[in-house]
Design a protein that fits this description.
Length: 701
């Protein structure tokens, strides 16, 4: 109660509230009626009298409130459903309770095929009548309705209707809140990243119920923990230049938040000041005017007597650098480390390096690691740092060389956010809703799912072998790295993404093609940018049989999506080392694509030769390329080309350059019908263009 009084004294400044707004003059306790189904009741919770969400809410609110649990397992909102709430004894008790506040969570059981397909048109009307019934018994009752708690993909009816009907019910609930005098509480978002809190895919355990209780507590009291900004906001950060910047955070409900931008110098000069008000959910958002490249700037974020300050801020180009171990591979490990680290000091380049607490090495994780991973606490706290010899060596080599080239060519500050996890698969980085709706099969029993690479599954199982939790999570699990590593970035404004990943999906290029498209869709939706530039690295050469076809699959994906580029690095590989040490070329090839595409530098060649077309006639094949100006062999003669006839058997071909084309012949293939290049897992194919960039693996057929 002391905590409550202390909070309310602060809250009154923001909202003009006082204790009298929460209790009558005689100090009567506020009655909170929790109305709902089995989630409210506490089904599946062993000690529901203490651990159901209404019970935990009672403890949070304290002695000034009395919380009633009127949950009925199996109840439907629909009055024609198989178990209408309005026909249950719990409904009669809730009316008799006549709460001052009503929290309604109903709709989960309406996803039953007996209900929604038949009576969905009556849902809104039935819900409004339920709301009105509580106002009739207490005209002063404040009603909150809730978005449904998540229904997991492991639910037996998930794909047969439950998933889609839940979506439709959520939209109906949102419509009710928008057009009637009720407040919406989101029970879905706080729990959605935590499927491990739902033992049966529908009922939260005590920890999940605690999250619901805390969510209701914050809405009832307005206490959202005060002023907070995303963790990516620190001193020395780089903000995206030359475009309006959406800035968001949280504060106590109703509080005014004011963001001020200063130009730092001998005399601090205020450039802009914009304010917003935190909503009933504690969220606020505002838009800053575009900042010119350079700085330094200072940002202050204020709310009441709280103030967050960020100094030595620059405006420039901000790129997210992500993927698996070849992106995480540090400058210290690169072939050029001894030469470049001592010369790396550059205050115009800044790093935000997201290191993990636990690497996915071949070891059993201890209990503290397992628990932390389950709570999505996987990344260490970090801060923006200037590029110096002391910081650059620990940073991604590919990202460093990419950023250095951009900074040199554009002459503006560059901010690099590195978020890469060794061994991670593409599906780990895709948001849950996208996979649930477009690739739900990959979510099922991931540790024994053939869509997930065997090595990935085995390493995840070994790391978590000591866990007693059958729903134990792991960074390689589908969606995990999106939920633990992308969501916390809170849509920090970006110029684009560079991506070095694929080794952990090379066993199934068809699945990867789908996953890569979903990754693009997921991230572009997250950053509200349907053409967010996305440059990726094609897998290099190594003696792994599936890699040639996977490399060709990556090449073909260039034609499927806008604002996508690829850096070829098959010439940099090693027969047995999955981590090539020549990272400068990789970073600078990605930079060449970025300079040509997103930055419009047409004088920069963005890629090596890319297969465009083939003509087969007179016993030869004529191959045409995009970016084929200045074709030549990186060696004495061209190597790596093969021809086949209709029998599908390929033979080495003699290759000759004619202008921007390559002509192929083979005595063993008198009537060629297909050609391929660089098709060996570890290839010595050596076609390059005038810029010195290597040609991509390709198959014409």
């Amino acid at each position: 109660m002391k905590r409550m009084l202390s909070f309310l004294s602060v809250l009154s400044v923001c909202m003009g509230l006082s204790m009298e707004a929460h209790a009558d003059g005689g100090g009567r306790k506020i009655k909170v009626a929790c109305i709902g189904d089995s989630i409210t009741y506490g089904t599946g919770i062993e000690d529901r009298d203490n651990d159901s969400y209404p019970s935990q809410l009672q403890r949070l609110l304290g002695d000034g409130y009395v919380v009633g649990n009127f949950g009925k397992p199996g109840a439907t909102l629909l009055s024609k459903g198989h178990r209408p709430y309005v026909e249950q004894e719990e409904y009669r008790q809730a009316l008799e309770f006549a709460g001052d506040i009503a929290i309604i969570h109903l709709g989960v059981n309406d996803t039953d095929p007996r209900n929604w397909p038949n009576y969905q048109d009556e849902f809104i009307g039935d819900y409004l009548r339920l709301i009105e019934s509580f106002r009739q018994v207490n005209p002063g009752c404040k009603v909150y309705i809730t978005r449904l708690t998540p229904i997991g993909s492991a639910h037996p009816r998930f794909e047969s209707g439950t998933r889609d009907w839940e979506d439709e019910i959520q939209l109906a609930i949102e419509k009710i809140a928008a057009h009637n005098d009720v407040t919406l509480i989101d029970f879905h978002a706080p729990l959605y990243p935590f499927p491990n809190l739902f033992p049966d895919a529908i009922h939260p355990n005590p920890v999940g119920a605690g999250i619901l209780a805390a969510t209701v507590y914050s809405h009832l009291t307005g206490d959202f923990g005060g002023l907070k900004m995303p963790s990516v906001f620190t001193d020395n950060m780089v903000l995206q230049r030359d475009r309006p910047l959406k800035i968001s955070g949280s504060a106590n409900a109703g509080c005014k938040v004011e963001v001020t931008v200063f130009r730092e110098g001998k005399r601090m000069r205020r450039l802009q000041q914009i304010s917003a008000e935190a909503g009933h959910d504690g969220r606020w958002e505002l838009e800053l005017k575009a900042l010119e490249a350079g700085g330094p700037y200072k940002l202050t974020v204020e709310s009441g007597n709280e103030c967050l300050e960020y100094g030595n801020v620059l405006a420039g180009e901000v790129w997210l650098c992500s993927g698996q171990s070849n992106m995480a591979f540090t400058l210290y490990e690169a072939a050029t480390a001894d030469r470049d680290i001592p010369l790396s000091a550059n205050s115009e380049i800044r790093f935000f390096d997201m290191k993990q607490y636990w690497q996915t090495q071949n070891e059993n994780w201890r209990e503290s690691a397992l628990d932390s991973v389950n709570r999505l606490i996987y990344y260490k706290d970090t801060r923006w740092e200037e590029c110096t010899p002391e910081t650059s060596g620990h940073f991604s080599a590919v990202a460093y060389y990419f950023g250095r080239k951009l900074q040199q060519e554009l002459g503006v500050p560059v901010g690099l956010i590195c978020n890469a996890v060794g061994g991670s698969a593409t599906e780990s980085w895709v948001d849950r809703s996208t996979l649930e709706h477009q690739f739900p099969a990959i979510l099922r029993n991931w540790s024994s799912n053939d869509f997930v690479q065997q090595w990935v599954r085995e390493r995840g199982s070994f790391n978590t072998a000591l866990s007693k939790d059958r729903l134990q999570r792991h960074p390689y699990q589908p969606c995990y790295l999106f939920e633990s590593g992308i969501l916390p970035l809170e849509k920090f404004p970006l110029a684009g993404v560079i991506w070095y990943q694929g080794e952990s999906n090379a066993h199934n290029y068809q699945a990867h093609e789908k996953l890569f498209g979903l990754l693009l869709e997921s991230w572009r939706k997250n950053w509200d940018n349907p053409e967010l530039p996305f440059g990726f690295v094609q897998l290099s050469s190594i003696n792994r049989p599936s890699w040639p076809r996977f490399r060709d699959s990556q090449r073909r994906m260039l034609e499927q999506y806008p604002a996508v580029g690829m850096a070829v690095c098959s010439d940099l590989g090693h027969p047995s080392n999955v981590h090539p040490v020549r990272k400068q070329e990789v970073g600078e090839r990605l930079a060449a694509w970025a300079l040509n595409g997103p930055y419009g530098r047409l004088d920069v060649v963005p890629s090596g030769p890319l297969y465009r077309s083939a003509e087969f006639s007179n016993g030869k094949a004529v191959i045409s390329f995009s970016y084929g100006e200045g074709l030549k062999a990186d060696g004495e003669k061209l190597a790596g080309f093969e021809l086949s006839g209709d029998d599908g058997l390929f033979h080495e071909a003699e290759a000759r350059i004619e202008g921007d084309k390559v002509v192929l012949r083979s005595d063993k293939v008198p009537q060629p019908s297909a050609a391929r290049y660089g098709w060996q897992p570890y290839t010595e194919a050596n076609l390059v263009n005038g810029a010195g960039f290597p040609a991509s693996t390709f198959l014409t057929d």
